[in-house]
Inverse folding.
């Protein structure tokens, strides 16, 4: 079935550690996005990519990094520079001028 | 800068009631508006997409309206059921060229009591 898959569902990070969240899609979408969701707030855009080997910062990119080596994959690394990483992370993909499809999310907790 | 708000933040209704969720946006120059449903700990599921040239969209018991001039959209849910309990988010898209110009509201948490 076509869709977008995030893994893992739950992730725990120790202080000072980098962690990577996976996002894979088989929808043949050109664009992919990472959002952060905090309680009581709307989704905020971290990074997005509209084509392989190219990506742009969103509204809250500090402390995060991404890569887009393949059309199907857009992993997000939460670095030690992100001081408040505990949140729910959502990945999405879309074709040009179409609505987006979302993954099921990864809940990251700092321990 | 586009801002999107949703009122109320939470709503609790008895089963069977008709209800309206509200979404307001500050800049009427939008491309489209989309309503999503989010179950606890899950991703977003698209419910209805309204293009800027449309006034409303319907899907089953759901009806979404759009009034660009007043900066408002409403999601009407008829004959509510406990399975409708979830958080409902609206998202306003300002550019047709890319999905990055999408602003999400904070959501309305709906609880339908059996």
């Amino acid at each position: 079935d076509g869709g977008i898959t995030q893994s893992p569902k739950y992730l725990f990070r120790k202080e000072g550690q980098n962690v990577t969240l996976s996002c894979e899609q088989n929808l043949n979408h050109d664009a992919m996005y990472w959002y952060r969701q905090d309680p009581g707030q709307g989704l905020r855009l971290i990074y997005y990519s509209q084509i392989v080997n190219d990506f742009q910062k969103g509204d809250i990119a500090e402390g995060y990094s991404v890569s887009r080596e393949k059309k199907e994959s857009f992993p997000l690394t939460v670095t030690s520079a992100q001081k408040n990483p505990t949140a729910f992370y959502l990945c999405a993909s879309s074709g040009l001028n179409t609505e987006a499809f979302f993954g099921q999310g990864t809940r990251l907790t700092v321990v | 800068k586009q801002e999107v708000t949703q009122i109320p933040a939470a709503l609790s209704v008895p089963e069977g009631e008709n209800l309206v969720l509200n979404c307001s946006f500050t800049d009427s120059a939008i491309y489209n508006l989309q309503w999503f449903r989010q179950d606890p700990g899950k991703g977003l599921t698209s419910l209805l997409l309204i293009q800027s040239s449309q006034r409303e969209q319907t899907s089953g018991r759901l009806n979404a309206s759009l009034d660009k001039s007043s900066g408002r959209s409403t999601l009407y849910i008829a004959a509510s059921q406990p399975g409708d309990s979830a958080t409902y988010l609206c998202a306003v898209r300002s550019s047709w060229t890319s999905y990055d110009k999408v602003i999400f509201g904070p959501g309305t948490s709906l609880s339908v009591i059996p």
Summary: The longest strand of chain B covers residues 44-51. Chain B touches chain A at residues 4, 9, 34, 36, 41-46, 49, 89, 91, 96-100, 102-107 (CB under 8 Å). The CA atoms of residues 36 and 47 of chain B lie 5 Å apart. The radius of gyration of chain B is 14 Å.
